[in-house]
Amino acid sequence: MAGLSLQGVKKRFGHTEVITGVDLSIADGEFVVFVGPSGCGKSTLLRMIAGLETVSDGRIEIGGRDVTNADPAKRGIAMVFQTYALYPHMSVAANMGFPLEMAGLPQPEIDAKVAEAAKILHLEPFLKRKPRELSGGQRQRVAIGRAIVRKPDVFLFDEPLSNLDAELRVQMRIEIARLHQQLKSTMIYVTHDQVEAMTLASRIVVLKAGRIEQVGAPLDLYENPDNMFVAGFIGSPRMNFVPVTVVSQGDGFAVVAAAEVGLREVSVAVRGEPPVVGTRGVLGVRPEHFASGGDACFEGTVSVVERLGGLTYVHASLSDKSALTVESRDPRGFDLGTTRRFAFDPRRAFLFDGTGQRL
Amino acid sequence: MKRTLPQSLALYAGLAVIVLLIGLPFWWVMSGSIKLPREIISRVPTMVPQSFTLQHFEKLLQSTDFPAYLVNSLLVALFSTVFTIALALPTAYAFFRMKFPGRAALYRLILVAYAFPTVVVLIPIYGLFARFGLIDTRASLVIVNIAFALPFSIWMMRSFLASVPRDIEEAAIVDGAPPRVILLRIMAPLIAPGIASVAIFTFIASWTEYLFASVLIVSDARRTIPVGFAGIIGQYQIDWGLLLAGATLATIPVVILFAFVGRWFVTGLTEGAVK
Ligand SMILES: Nc1ncnc2c1ncn2[C@@H]1O[C@H](COP(=O)(O)OP(=O)(O)OP(=O)(O)O)[C@@H](O)[C@H]1O
Ligand SMILES: [Mg+2]
């Protein structure tokens, strides 16, 4: 068991810097999830922690030990790959026992540990099979089994569930959460599925273009995003962003308006110094924070209605061409093409400045 | 995929042509080897043997040195094949995975071995082997065969290595396997078709090699089949029955090799590894 720390970690491929300086410390036993859009460097960062990619600059410590240049096998990590990466010519038992065999353990001990891992992962009936004789979910469990047999300090997962179908993904997600409670080891998990991120993580690291945008507990990121990128990335469907102008301000709040989209003066809380009157900004409102009643509202034309049963998503366009997504518990009363008002709760709205930083 | 009837017919017709083209000469040689001399040289050739005799095989095995040539050929071809694989595999892996200065240049350079006509290198090699006392040894043939098979084998194996998903290798690295173990326990089984191809290529090249065998080997007892057999057939008069029997026996090891190695040519070896 061990924590982990990244200090000024950078990665260059030739002249392009894909990780542009990451500082992060992870406590023992934490479940940290890296999220971010495709190509932002999640895998690269994880592979640097694993030792599969060299570190161009900075320092990586695992359990207080500098491992920046250590061999992957000497870092006390185990990794589960998106593609499972099983050894196709070996049986399930041999696959899971391989790291122990490499560590020089005697065969009876290997067998015992493999049996124990197989029990945790419900793989006992398959130990003699070859990977090609298993389903996708079983293969993924073998890959996880191969990681847990060695009792590593840190588990690294690179999008382990993305090759599974939706149902199995939910099941495996729960299994991984259970595994974390059971083993209590540090886990770092890369995904771009934000449901996985929200449900599994004790802390989420949001990455963008090789840089950390924000680190925090899932609900912190949801309730208190630092910028428009994080606000838009966490939460589904995406947060709505509507350009507004500051019309007055006071201690800890700003009053904003956007007449062209039907938004009359509404007061929004701000975290720091209130913005000066006349500033152009962006108001962020999550689809789930719309509710009938109240003065704060946008005026838009209903363009698409998705009725999911319990919930209904209404997509509307505002007169300034920006799109609005509204969640409603009542499926009735949204006729296509009609223009209507969508009221929201201004206490749950966020104000961002012109550069996308939270005010 | 469903084929229409004309498509199927065309396919089978094409197959039949290929089978005849390749199979007919074989059938001619093998069936001829058990015909009586009279039938072999008869004016109207017979596709199905009308007579049966083992006299050609008897003569070949009892009153010529053919058995010795067969053993020599087998030894030379087997050792050439085994050493070629043993050398090509780690070399190809090094070219594929290790980073060292001049790697790309060196990798291209090894193909220069094929740039010269063999006759050109014959004399320098003879001189070299004479100095090391290797003339008239079967080892000299093994060395020559390896030298000629190696560059191609390295290229071949490298491309097979490149087809193994990188993740599998990285998983082995994380699992703590040193390069030697990764090569032998993980990569080698996964590129079995590549190893089989190299084995067959080297074996056949060694089995049929004539030029060096005719120059480097002096004593009759150390000859390989291509050279030794040419001597048996005779210079002025050709014993057709003997020729066909010898040709038949000479193909048998190759056929056995294909049967033995063929099972490694299975596709989808990495199936189930990724995805
Ligand atoms: N070996 C490499 N050489 C050059 N560039 C690379 C290499 N590996 C990754 N990159 C680049 O680094 C950036 C980050 O890649 P990375 O694979 O870490 O992204 P990711 O966040 O994992 O994306 P995804 O969600 O699609 O898996 C990308 O722009 C990619 O093109
Ligand atoms: Mg990735």
From TrEMBL, chain A:
UniProt cross-references to PROSITE patterns, sorted A to Z: ABC_TRANSPORTER_1 (PS00211), ABC_TRANSPORTER_2 (PS50893)
Pfam family name, one: ABC_tran
Membrane topology, from the record: Peripheral membrane protein
Keyword Transport carried by entry: yes
Alphabetized GO MF terms: ABC-type maltose transporter activity; ATP binding; ATP hydrolysis activity
Residue ranges constituting the ABC transporter domain according to the UniProt record: 4-234
InterPro entries, per the entry: AAA+_ATPase, ABC_transporter-like_ATP-bd, ABC_transporter-like_CS, ABC_transpr_MalK-like, ABC_transpr_MalK/UgpC-like, Mo/tungstate-bd_C_term_dom, NA-bd_OB-fold, P-loop_NTPase
Residues of the signal peptide: none
Location in the cell: Cell inner membrane
Family (UniProt): Belongs to the ABC transporter superfamily.
Record organism: Pseudaminobacter soli (ex Zhang et al. 2022)
Cellular component, GO, one term: ATP-binding cassette (ABC) transporter complex, substrate-binding subunit-containing
Protein name listed in UniProt: Sn-glycerol-3-phosphate ABC transporter ATP-binding protein UgpC
Encoding gene (name): ugpC
From TrEMBL, chain B:
Family: Belongs to the binding-protein-dependent transport system permease family. MalFG subfamily.
Domain of life from the UniProt record: Bacteria
Matches recorded under Gene3D superfamilies: MetI-like
GO cellular component: plasma membrane
Keyword Transmembrane: yes
PROSITE patterns reported for this sequence: ABC_TM1
Subcellular location(s) of the protein: Cell membrane
Entry-linked Pfam families: BPD_transp_1
Family matches, as SUPFAM superfamilies: MetI-like
Function: Part of the ABC transporter complex MalEFGK involved in maltose/maltodextrin import. Probably responsible for the translocation of the substrate across the membrane.
Sequence ranges assigned to domain ABC transmembrane type-1 in this UniProt record: 70-261
Name used for this protein in its record: Maltose/maltodextrin transport system permease protein MalG
Transmembrane segments: 9-28, 69-93, 105-129, 141-161, 182-204, 240-266
Primary location: membrane
Species for this entry: Pseudaminobacter soli (ex Zhang et al. 2022)
Keywords annotated in UniProt: Cell membrane, Membrane, Sugar transport, Transmembrane, Transmembrane helix, Transport
Keyword RNA-binding: no
CDD domains on file: TM_PBP2
GO biological process: transmembrane transport
Membrane topology qualifier: Multi-pass membrane protein
